[in-house]
Design a protein that fits this description.
alpha+beta; five-stranded antiparallel beta sheet; 11 helices; 19 strands; globular
Amino acid sequence: MAPLGPFGAAPSLAVAVSGGPHSLAAALLARDWVAARGGSVLALVADHGLRPESGAEADHVMALLAKAGSAAECLRLALPGGARMQERARASRLAALIEAATRHGCPWLLLGHHRGDQAETLAFRALRGSGAAGLAAMAPLRVAPDCLILRPLLGFAPARLEAVVAAAGLAPVRDPSNENPRFARIRLRLALGDPGGEGEGVRALAEAAQAFAHRRARQEAALLARLATAAEIHPEAYALLDPKALGTDAPGVAALARLIGLIGGAAWPVPIEATAALLARGGGSLAGAWVRPGAAGRWLVARDPGLIAPAQPLQPPFLWDGRFMVTGPGRPGWSCAALGEAASGFRGLASIPLPALRALPALWDEKGKLAVLPGLFYAEGVEAAAWRMVFAPQGGGLPAG
């Protein structure tokens, strides 16, 4: 844990627990670690609801955690079946875990990924043609909108974690989907043939991922240094860019690609080749962002007005337009949609460029009337304080402000 800190006195952690041996080990180790520091840990159990027996399994995991003396909460997700089930389950689970950790005042969320998971991730991405950044696999620390996601066990073989659970006298849950060769990752796991993660092949793959991670960290530092010099990133989801300070070299192009992904809410990395072409043209539209020359020789980077998400029913929490995390009470008949042409009536917000202002989320009542524009010191009524709309793009990784 120490390399992922500092944590301060009496840290409050949340840990995701599926009931499998590795996440149970993470919960047990976290429990002992915080106890020695006067802190607290909350185990979070996600029930996807994808199998008839999943509810009973989640209850069993809650009982295991109670036996281990760990406080816990069960998150019932009730996901529908269908295509891309594992991918959708991962995304929904992580969103629910982050929301629960934030609600309980836990700024750190621990995940139980281990050396075998890291080796599988590198191999899986290599087979899909990932570049060097993707081959860095899972990061031990990742910034989420409201907490830090930590993976402190990436260097440990799964067999060691199994031993921790056995020593505690707990019988972990075995998810049958982890043995189903229908899924590509499971076929890859079976091909590696090292469930304990102690063989040379898994070790070599995990070490390769670590080497790629060191390279990614160096590139990330150069990218962030360039952005700090060249860009002003605003919490209203736009940026002002000095093209001369940005430059046209590799770090400059990579920095612009990251900025475009951030402002456009891109779910995937923005292609470097397309970014270089946009930079050479002196602007354009790419990956949901709009780059154009502005005043004083600076460029404006804002949301592409033709690609803004449509209205979405107000049932928080949810990520709107890939950019804004909306939290607060649900409201039947209300929706979240862009401010749009109503932006022209906001004279007091002239400091925000009009394209960025039009792309901001607002809440609309059942009659289609503007109800709330939170975060910008304006609201029709006193209800604005009930909601939060925070710039937290899915293609993020950079602070706004």
